[in-house]
Design brief:
The structure is a homodimer of 332-residue chains. With 332 residues, chain A is of the alpha/beta class. The first copy, chain A, folds into two domains: 176 residues, Rossmann fold (3-Layer(aba) Sandwich); 135 residues, Hypothetical Protein Tm841, Chain: A,domain 3.
Chain lengths: 332, 332
């Protein structure tokens, strides 16, 4: 295993320490239990909390800041965080207007966020949850009942975060989050595996000329293992199921993300984006906004995923609101 | 070779097409000769042009936009651009106040930018050049007489770009660029090689437990091949030579970059940043601003580099000026 790490059991903690040192004006680290939270004091706004296994950076810690998350609760690599983290994060960032949990659909995450919700509610703090289950590749998976939550999470965190920042109440922020979650679909592929530090060997093996279509963000099996194809063919194989599942029609607009799995050069992601743009354009669908880069990764895995969100004026206006986090930044 | 590409000879062009499609409000693509330029019309400001071999994305195309470059001229992967690209880019973006070339110190780049400078000057356009040669690892290298130009380039493009955007004249922009170039030092390391598409096999081989310290951004040999060490030890091995060469003293400030080579998870870069922060703090040197991420890469190479820039109030104020490019964005 070749990684820039010190001790396997300190990878997550040291990485978060580094992030907090690099962005002291944006995020602070709570040491015990472990979570990142906004450096500016809680304001009377709905607080957004997400979290999940580490290894998907910049998700979620990179999205803590103005116009996005108030706290991010990291588990060990590819392992759910425990309820205590979300409970303490909730108490820390609650600004008196309730909390929205953004939960990727993995069995452990769902269970632990539910437990945290009950514990916070028992203390009189209103909590709502939105589940993200946008991966069209498979209906059930290794860690999942139902679809896996992947790239759509970035869109939910950004857009619900904008609504909360603008002062929407919990009901309204939850409605927006649900709308984004329902309107997002994703599919990914891998050229190579990743290696979880605690395991020390690759999660799966792929032949020198093979790829896996429909891979999960933990290296879970996808739809099909096949011979490597061209970037244009691969983009077709990812984009079509996403477009069909979303039921996109001529004249509609989307927010599109071409996401790298961690080990893929930006150059290749732009080649995928180019084809995605061509496919959508030919169908009369406009990309109104886009992200191209590493936004939800699987350690050093090589590969890419495509996420599309059906966009209307409400979502686009929220998208354009200022955001200021370690990993996403625009506006004043 | 496992890459998300279509044809080897179309990698650079299709990638640039994708970038222009993804950021139409920021960059436009000139097809022949190939270069990216600012989407907003030339204004009466000093125009900044850089370029070099592709494969280092987001450098340089990702830095075209407000407060940074006016044009970026890409060669094939790890191959210099030709003079015609810089000449035509120069004519396109010249706003009547002259042009500054930002040139990484590689023999081919230096020669081709010099030729372009002569050709533009022959047409009556004033051109100055700044050379970036910040890599302390080796004095001469495979493609270089003198030190290689690496991470300091990002700092030169950003800070000279801010000065130009504020209306400084060519003399002044060149002075600032030179100051940043002189005040920057870098060193990098690799855990793995990269594969140039046209070659199809890894540039070099590293054993399963080996790393290369002092690597160049094209996989050129560095100072030493050795057994893999901990992230903290590696950070020491990169940071100390940089600090010593720069002659940093207690009480000074730096702008610091922990850069990924393309295939390294952000999580690991934060672990390196954490240690860099500790090393500098112990020496009484403050990190005034920082970047952590993929800013100057070597395709899918795994590894990292550290760049430090001696910072004073003049440079920090320029650093904080608004920048709006595909890869760097802050301010209004």
């Amino acid at each position: 295993m070749k990684k820039l790490i010190n001790q396997v059991d300190r990878v997550v903690r040291e990485s978060l320490e580094g992030e907090a040192l690099a962005f002291p004006h944006l995020v602070k680290l709570n040491e015990d239990p472990l979570f990142l939270y906004r450096a500016d004091a809680p304001r009377p706004k709905v607080a957004l909390i997400s979290g999940g296994g580490s290894g998907h950076e910049p998700l979620h810690g990179g999205y803590v800041g103005r116009g996005m998350l108030d706290a991010a609760c990291p588990g060990e690599v590819f392992t759910s965080p425990v309820p205590d983290q979300m409970v303490e994060a909730g108490k820390k960032v609650h600004g008196g207007k309730g909390i929205l949990f953004i939960v990727k659909n993995y069995t452990g995450d769902v269970m632990n966020f539910e437990m945290a919700q009950e514990l916070l509610e028992a203390e009189g703090i209103p909590v709502k949850s939105v589940l993200v289950a946008d991966d069209v590749a498979v209906e059930n998976s290794l860690y999942t009942a139902g679809r896996r939550g992947v790239g759509g999470t970035v869109f939910v965190e950004r857009i619900a975060g904008a609504a909360a920042e603008k002062g929407a109440d919990l009901e309204e922020v939850a409605r927006i989050a649900e709308k984004v979650s329902q309107g997002s679909r994703s599919m990914g592929m891998a050229l190579s595996s990743c290696t979880v530090p605690a395991k020390g060997s690759p999660t799966f093996e792929l032949g020198d000329d093979e790829m896996e279509i429909g891979i999960g963000i933990h290296g879970e099996p996808g739809r099909e293992r096949m011979k490597l194809k061209s970037a244009d063919e691969i983009t077709e194989m990812l984009a079509r199921p996403v477009m069909e599942d979303l039921g996109l029609r001529r004249g509609e607009k989307v927010i599109a993300m071409v996401n790298g799995m961690g080990g893929t050069p930006l150059m290749e992601l732009f080649i995928v984006y180019r084809k995605l743009h061509q496919i959508l354009e030919a169908e009369g669908i406009a990309i109104a906004r886009s992200l191209v880069g590493n936004y939800i990764t699987s350690l050093e895995m090589q590969g890419a995923s495509i996420t599309l969100l059906r966009a209307d004026e409400e979502l686009l206006q929220l998208w354009d609101e200022p955001v200021h986090t370690p990993a996403l930044r625009w506006g004043v």
